[in-house]
Amino acid sequence: HPHDLAAAAPRDRDAQVAPLVGCTALAVDRCELRDRDRVDRVRRIQEHRERVVADDVLDRVVPRRARLRDLIAQRSLTRGQLKLASGGESNIFFDMKTTLLDPEGASLTGDLILDMLGAEEMDAIGGLVLGACPVVTAVCVKSAERGRPIPGFYVRKEPKGRGTNKLIEGNLEPGWRVVVVEDVTTEGNSA
Prior knowledge:
four-stranded mixed beta sheet, two-stranded antiparallel sheet, 5 helices, 48% helix
């Protein structure tokens, strides 16, 4: 009887326990191995599922990045000796406005920036007029579609001199945490 197990000798106890767990006395060790195999198999299945989820995320992100890179190469890349806003010169120039003002390019840009920002805590996204305007707008629209609306703002180099005469247009409150974007960066000094 199972209640007599405590008083039984170790070998006798194995013989009495084995039938209770579906094993013969000689197969107790094999049952334990099968249990370990089951645990290992469950662990491998869980690891596989995690890899599948990670691969699914990459499959969704990487093709979008590749497509945006193709659009940029087709629409925004210029080669030749060009003078930059910083005063420097370059033989490669990306005029991102042609990609950012394309419906597909704007959509991809907004999605990928939000993917990169992840769960970053922020209250708004903005940047300098004119370069940041399409980037900010794309991110604002895509953030609303995802159910996490992020307001935007633009910073003028100087007030317009008419209308509200604001230096900052849009949604920005003192103390807010912001992400600053722009369409082109050479030295990172403008924003």
